[in-house]
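dumping these here so i dont lose them again. two proteins, back to back, each one seq then structure tokens. dont judge the mess
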Amino acid sequence: MNIQGLDYNTQRKKLVLPEYGREVQSMVDYCVTIADRSERQRCAEAIVATMERMTVKGHSNAEQKQKLWDHLAIMSDFKLDIDYPVDVSHAHKIAEKPKPMTYPMTRIPVRHYGKMMFRLFDKLKTMPAGKDRDILAGYTANQMKRDLVQWSHGSSDDEKVASDLARFTDGKIQLDLDKFKFERVNLHEIKENRKKKK
């Protein structure tokens, strides 16, 4: 839509640092065009004073001063030829955008157990039989039970845990449900944790 006399921000050039607004950006653009160096210096100092009034006072004066002059250099695309009272050479690093992070796309067969549990299953597969493996198997089984209770809204089955543990450890861990006793799961605590996450 192009109506004469109406000027929308969406049709204008994107702001480099939007927190200062379009008027300050216009002042910076104008300052770059001033031919006289001393006049340009006075204009830059006036812009920084305006920017200072717009920002929250939370840093020390030296940090605040450095930040404002860095921002002025960035907003002018480093074209402002003035005598900066601070070193703005590292301002290029502020202007650089970080590279996007890659999201870990590891597939797990059963999502309610989570990736960490499958690391435990892999560990149990390679451990030699003995007391250490039995202790880790017990911790793993109890965590699986808690996960099942949490994901199935309070219901879980000991046989399901034993079956899944045997399946995901390639049969290396066989829980004897006649001897193994699961820890009591506090359903109230699980519900409270679920509310906190929301």
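---- next one ----
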Amino acid sequence: MSEMPFLAPGIAWFLVVTFSVLWIALGVWWGKRGRGDAEDHMLAGRNLGISLSTATLVASWATGNTTLLAPELGYTTGLWGMFSYSRASLGLVLFAPLAVRIKTLMPRARTSGDFIRLRYGRLAWTIFLLITFVYSLGFLMTQAIGAGILLEALSGFDYRLGMLIVISVSTTYTIYGGMRAVAGTDYLQALLMMTLQVLVAVLVFNRFSPAEVHASLLANHPDRLDLLLPTGLLVAWNSGIFSMGEIFHHNTWWSRVFASRSSVIFRSFIFGGLAWMAVPLVTGSIGLVALAKGIEVPQVNMVFPVVAAQLLGAWGAAVVFLIVFASLTSTLDSLLASTADLIAVDIYLQLLRPHASDAQLKQASRTIVLLLGMATVMLCWPRFDSLVAVLLFTGALVSSTIWPIACGLYWRSANRHGAIAAMISGSVVGLIGYYAIAPYCAALLSAGVSALVMATWTWWRPEQFNWRRLA
């Protein structure tokens, strides 16, 4: 970077080393508290209570995208940019009743792939896994990109060095501790993020009151306050649909269902969604402050760290560093663990080694975590300038799975061929919309086409599924 970093190298290294050692030590310690078998490694003994269950949902969903992308949307699209990202909380809230249904129908299942395979057959399962793997790699990439951007913007570290540090830390304690390490560190990371974000917002708006920010935007950027702005409305609806696709299909959230006690599942998803909603509202408002004050940023995805550091000084940069470092590690560990478990159970155990021992399955999961971390580093080695482009591409794919999953959980007559056609047609139309119209409409088009195909095919050829097959 040509700009001077906001943190002195000594302070930056102190924060990196201190919190890297802390997360790894806690992850290893929590991992040692389990039974040591594969199921305990993957699902923490299926005994997470309300506090850990809610905290791991908030921490896993409060991603580097939330901290970096929400301010970017607020800065570029205004008020709707801030509100639209908060609609991603709908995914957690609307998944709550589905989570209860999943736990009831599949009390001993391990992955989201188990449901698709048993409900719709192996062809649908194969398509679902392809969508999941593309999404997982895309999501891992956004977190790695965010890690590089963070350390470069705040400390002057090379982009690749920051990426390597954050991925290495998350990979290390996830390998050793599994789900127990992920849930335990998520609990502390969620508390750290929420507390520090509120602190930053209070201090920023203490210097520039909301009335002052509003007056400046009204005078210089009135279009950014327009709640009927077509782009803003499109972004808002796309965010809500996209979040449903991400959460409904991905094993990160299914693994939380299987790992939590039945009595806490519904409440943890509701509480987690409502608590998470505050995160993009707080960070997105920083983007509005930057716009109102005319603060220049070298890249739009650096709005939050640059603005907080400029307005609050070096210690403000340190606070932002901790927020984003916690959000990145808390999301990376969840993605690594859940994706590795999906591959270990659905590919390694189901297809390659159906007679693998418990110890071999656990070792396979650990090895896959390492390989995923290495793959993410290689994919992100060339620098990307925007998190939005990488993230929204996957929306066209994951949104096509919403209705096959929802219908498959509640609708006995849901047709397996309809589910296959819905995922394929939704993904294709969504990708066409992404390139031909606008990235923000990809998820909407995908979900709409998928719903139409799923409903029409099931009406035309209803099936009668035996729910006991899922048990």
